[in-house]
From TrEMBL:
Keywords: Amino-acid biosynthesis, Carboxypeptidase, Diaminopimelate biosynthesis, Hydrolase, Lysine biosynthesis, Manganese, Metal-binding, Protease. This is N-acetyldiaminopimelate deacetylase. The active site is at 75, 134 (proton acceptor). It is an enzyme of class 3 (hydrolase). It catalyses: N-acetyl-(2S,6S)-2,6-diaminopimelate + H2O = (2S,6S)-2,6-diaminopimelate + acetate. It comes from Lacticaseibacillus sharpeae JCM 1186 = DSM 20505. Belongs to the peptidase M20A family. N-acetyldiaminopimelate deacetylase subfamily.
Length: 384
């Protein structure tokens, strides 16, 4: 029986694209994956779940002469974005979309898994279909639940993320840190609401929030080493109900990002100090929740990544490129702190529409090269 064809990969990707589900709620996606994998009926394959992370799936392939266990991880969740691609296989779930390409990630993982179910690997393999990459850190949850114990423990771990800016099918990575570590900011200022005409009788939480948004811009400009870089973005601010009522509360969500954990922790302290300072200055109550969870910097293992780069460079059938680090986050960073491994970008050729755009539409021409690049590299790892 042959590997999955381009047409079969495309059908799978489109099926998955129709049913985007948010972190830890990926029940239909879980069912689809389990049904498909279960239909392959492989004697050396075992499929299991993780009770603490019910939408996760783990697949174990027993090798013919195992020297190690090779892990491959894909994320499976989607985003609360209303799709505007106009595709005929667009999301059927209102307000939710695979706007980060996890449908592509899952499809490539299934293609790689299918290959090794048809060609029993020499080494053992573990495939991890991980919920909650966008938030709620499904990788850390699975690890903390003991999912990678015993035969499920990978000696090396690989994964990919799609990249609309790169040509479809190109694989890119680098030695060292590929993605930033992140910390979610969730902040509420509580003051006293009142009539717009009598500000002296109220305490305006919206004005406090505005001051916070401006002051927090100084964290990157004044506290972060410019050579190392960092990001503080407040992406969401809600305050008040109508123009002639002073807002009694304001809620803000945002993200802190940097390539080094020491910088992330420094930025967390500065954001906390500024929030407390605004609270004291404006007399508003401050409730600040900073969550890093599993979003550690994505640090590629030096030896494994050097091997991957050397292998991909010498294979003329693989379009490989070196690339600079990016401020995207990925909770695969947590798993790469526990197990050595490498994350790569897979180009999906849609440069006008960045990750998280409601119009992002990956080119399916990326699917076969993604599968074959990893099949070749993992087969090479097994010959080491
Ligand atoms: C690849 C990607 O887009 N990942 C997300 C990860 C989000 C981490 C966390 N929820 C945060 O917002 O800090 C990203 O936004 O980079």
């Amino acid at each position: 029986m042959p590997d999955l064809t381009a047409a079969e990969l495309s059908t799978i990707r489109e099926d998955l694209h129709r049913i985007p589900e948010l972190a830890l709620h990926e029940t239909r996606t879980h069912e689809y994956l389990r049904k498909l994998i279960g239909s392959w009926q492989v004697p050396f394959m075992e499929v299991t779940g993780i009770p603490a992370v019910p939408t996760a799936i783990l697949v174990h392939l027993a090798g013919t002469n195992p020297q190690r266990t090779i892990g491959y991880r894909t994320d499976i969740d989607a985003l609360p974005v209303t799709e505007e691609t106009g595709l005929d296989f667009a999301s059927t779930i209102p307000g939710q979309m695979h706007a980060c390409g996890h449908d592509v990630h899952m499809t490539v993982a299934l293609g790689v898994l299918r290959h090794f179910t048809l060609n029993q690997p020499r080494d053992n393999m573990v495939f991890f279909f991980q919920p909650a990459e966008e938030n709620d850190f499904g990788g850390k949850r699975a690890y903390d639940a003991g999912a990678f114990a015993g035969k499920w423990r990978p000696d090396e771990f690989y994964g990919l993320h799609d990249n609309p800016d790169l040509p479809a099918g190109q694989i890119a990575t680098r030695l060292g840190t590929l993605f930033a570590g992140t910390t979610e900011i969730h902040l509420t200022f509580t003051g006293v609401s009142g009539h717009a005409a009598f500000p002296h009788q109220a305490n305006d939480a919206l004005v406090a929030a505005a001051a916070f948004v401006m002051q927090v811009q100084t964290v990157v400009s004044r506290n972060v080493d410019p050579v190392r870089g960092g990001v503080v973005t407040i992406g969401d601010l809600h305050a008040g109900t109508i123009g002639n009522v002073i807002a009694g509360s304001a809620h803000l969500d945002g993200t802190i990002r940097a390539f080094r954990q020491v910088d992330i922790e420094m930025m967390q302290k500065r954001v906390r100090a500024i929030a407390d300072g605004v609270g004291a200055t404006y007399g508003v109550q401050v409730d600040l929740n900073l969550i890093q969870g599993g979003y550690m910097p994505v640090e590629n293992d030096p030896q494994l990544t050097a091997d991957l780069i050397a292998f991909m460079r010498q294979d003329a059938t693989i379009d490989f490129a070196d690339i600079a680090p990016a401020m995207t986050g990925e909770d695969f960073g947590f798993l790469l702190q526990k197990f050595p491994g490498t994350m790569v970008w897979l180009g999906v050729g849609d440069p006008g529409h960045p990750l998280h755009s409601s119009k992002m539409s990956p080119d399916e021409a990326a699917l076969l090269p993604g599968v074959s690049g990893f099949v070749k590299f993992l087969t090479h790892r097994m010959a080491e």
